[in-house]
Amino acid sequence: MYLYYTSDNYVHFICIKAFTLFKVYFILKSTTGYNHIERRAFKVLDKSSKVPLYLQLMNEIIEKIEQETYEEHDKLPSERELCDMYKLSRITVRQALQELEREGYIYKLHGKGTFVSAASIEQNLVKLYSFTEEMKKVGKTPMTKVLSFKEIAIDTRIANKMGLEPLDEVFEVVRLRLADEQPLMYETSYLPKKWFPYLTKEKLMEKPMYDIFSHDYQVHVTRAIERFSATQLRETEAGYLNALTQQPAMLIKRFAYHHEQLIEYTISVARGDKFDYTVELT
């Protein structure tokens, strides 16, 4: 098992050796509605190893998550229970949990405990991608709900972003993007009416937007620019995304072009705990 971590801008490569010595420990696991005793095997950490104990504990918990001993949204043992289970100090356990949270393996709910995060979805940013196709690649079932569809005259602010004139007509499309019925992104798209005459809500409900562009209008997205920034969920967005207001999120602004003509301006709000974006530098 291998674990990568970053410290002081240097990437360290650590090989965690296999441990063969096990103990059996009884822990009290809280569930909604009742408590029960669960019998669980765990590894004894090697205190003579040069690998720091907090990294050994991280690796142990990650292994249990990957093997689905701990499943998504399972509650983990408390800091005190982990101290007792692995004979570690509170400082060591806390450091391991903090690093696991930073890397997205776990999340904390105030007053309730620490839980296993749902697996995040990785998107590679070096090429054009479609939400629908990316979800299919990772074995998830994509779904799009069209929340609203309007024909509007744009204001100066949006006109400037899209290279249009104020009061030009566009379609404003608000959509909710889901994978395996779990809401992930709240999107608002602006599409110039002159490029997509007779576009309807019904069409957008039948097939992916980019398929409509290419099949119905012979318009292809040849390049796109995306801008990323951190944000917090507003009340409406949080409601649709089954999240908390002001929860951290990713704001993504996409400018999609057919050759040199801008055909789509989309503002997406993605749950920060559900996505990893990857850029490969060469």
TrEMBL record:
Keywords: DNA-binding, Transcription, Transcription regulation. Coiled coil: none annotated. InterPro entries: Bact_HTH_transcr_reg (IPR050679), Chorismate_lyase_/UTRA_dom_sf (IPR028978), Tscrpt_reg_HTH_GntR (IPR000524), UTRA (IPR011663), WH-like_DNA-bd_sf (IPR036388), WH_DNA-bd_sf (IPR036390). SMART domains: HTH_GNTR (SM00345), UTRA (SM00866). Residues 51-119 form the HTH gntR-type domain. One of its GO terms (biological process) is negative regulation of DNA-templated transcription. The keyword Plastid does not apply. Gene3D superfamilies: Chorismate lyase-like, Winged helix-like DNA-binding domain superfamily/Winged helix DNA-binding domain. The keyword DNA-binding applies. GO terms for molecular function: DNA binding; DNA-binding transcription factor activity. This is GntR family transcriptional regulator.
